[in-house]
Design goal:
With 112 residues, the chain is an alpha+beta fold. The protein has helices at residues 2-10, 19-27, 40-50, and strands spanning 13-15, 31-36, 59-62, 70-73, 81-84, 104-109.
């Protein structure tokens, strides 16, 4: 049961490095793992810019405890996906919304 629930969750998470990728994932009603500067003003900007007439703005859901994990499509079956362990967030990685240096990965999403 856990494996099925985890697979369902994983299928709804995408990684984005920039605003366009973030918005594309939100349009597919997915959660987004993105590099973030961890500033309150940035979160307010995300809420404002991502709001549409049909959906409220996105918000941070959590800062994952395991910062070295990220989402990546798995090889093999079409549509398969898995969590993999790449290097930590590289120093100098820009925040997807402000362009400032990112401090960590953040999981974002909308409420429907």
């Amino acid at each position: 049961m856990y494996a099925r629930a985890r697979a369902s969750f994983d299928a709804c998470v995408e990684q984005a490095a920039d605003w366009d990728g973030f918005m594309a994932a939100l349009e597919r009603k997915h959660m987004v793992l993105a590099p973030w500067c961890d500033e309150e003003e940035a979160e307010e900007e995300i809420k404002k810019r991502s709001a549409t007439k049909d959906a409220m703005g996105a918000k941070s859901l959590c800062i994952p405890l395991e910062q070295v994990r990220r989402w990546e499509a798995a090889g093999g079956a079409a549509g398969a996906a898995a969590w993999v362990a790449p290097p930590p967030l590289p120093e100098g990685t820009p925040c997807f919304v402000t362009g400032k240096p990112a401090k960590n990965w953040v999981l974002l999403g909308r409420s429907y």
